[in-house]
Amino acid sequence: MLICRTMVIAMLVLMLHSGCVSAASGQQTGDVLPDIDLPVPEDATHKSYLGLSGDGLFQIPQIKAEVVIIEIFSMY
Question: How many Å apart are CA 59 and CA 37, to the nearest integer?
């Protein structure tokens, strides 16, 4: 019984510690968006809409638009 309680306490401590570390190392308001490589769409209409050409990967600044709105979902 003592071993079980010790293991539960140790797991809780590790879970809480990892949450603090991940929250401290995340993006903050006003930070610059990191470089994100995205696949170029295969559909020609989608490529044209984004102002892209070619194949492979592209980054957000390559999109031909005055404003790009990025919505990030944090599920966990």
Answer: 5
